[in-house]
Amino acid sequence: METMELAKKICKAADGKKADNIIIMDMRGLMFSTDYFVICNAPTATQVRAIADNVEEELDKEKIHFSHKEGYHEGEWILLDYGDVVVHIFKNENREYYALEKLWGDAEITNYEG
Q1: Could you tell me the sign of the dihedral formed by the alpha carbons of 87, 89, 95, 98, in that order?
Q2: What is d(CA 66, CA 37) in angstroms, rounded to the nearest whole number?
Q3: What is the pLDDT of residues 63-109, one digit of tens each?
Q4: Torsion angle in degrees (nearest 10) through CA of 95, 13, 25, 63
Q5: 7 backbone dihedrals φ, ψ, rounded to 5°
Q6: How far apart are the first and last CA of the chain?
Q7: Are the beta carbons of 77 and 51 closer than 8 angstroms?
Q8: Are 91 and 42 in contact (CB under 8 A)?
Q9: What are phi and psi of 48, to 5 degrees?
Q10: Angle CA(94)–CA(51)–CA(87) in degrees, nearest 5?
Q11: What's the chain's Rg over C-alpha atoms?
Q12: Vertex 99 angle, CA 97 and 100, to 5°
C-alpha cells in the first residue's frame, strides 16, 4: 500500500470517531524515520482513546498493524507508529501546547476533508 493511501485510511478512521482538525504532514526530506504524520485532536481523553481504537481496528481489518503505541493509558497524546506513517492524536490543549505543525514548519500540510 502506498504511504499516502495509508495516511488517508488513518484520516478516515479518525474522522469516523469525530476527530477535529485532521491533517497530513509530509515529512519526507525532513525525517528519516517516517514519510507522513497524521495529526488530529479531540476534547477529552476518552475520545482521544476512541479515535486511537478506531484507527487500530480499521487498519487491523486490512492486516496493517502498528509497530509501537504510546500514551494510550493517559489519553493526552497517543502516538501510533505505522512505520512510514506516524499518527498523533492529541487532547485539544496538548495539540496547541506541542504545536507539531509549527515545530515542523517546513512540512507540507494537507487538510483532510472527510
Answers
A1: negative
A2: 14
A3: 999 999 999 999 999 999 999 999 999 999 999 999 999 999 999 99
A4: 120
A5: -60, -40
A6: 20
A7: no
A8: yes
A9: -60, -45
A10: 65
A11: 13
A12: 140
What are the grid coordinates assigned to 110, written together?
494537507
Residue type, 5: E
Grid cell for residue 3: 504511504
Determine the Cα–Cα distance for residues 60 and 27; give it in Å rounded to an integer.
Answer: 24
pLDDT digits 0-9 by tens, 91-103: 999 999 999 999 9
- For 84, the grid coordinates are 512510514
Measure Cα distances from 20 to 64, 83, 99 in Å.
24, 23, 15
Length of the chain: 114
If you ran DSSP here, which 8-state letter would residue 104 be given?
Answer: T
Cell of 17: 470517531
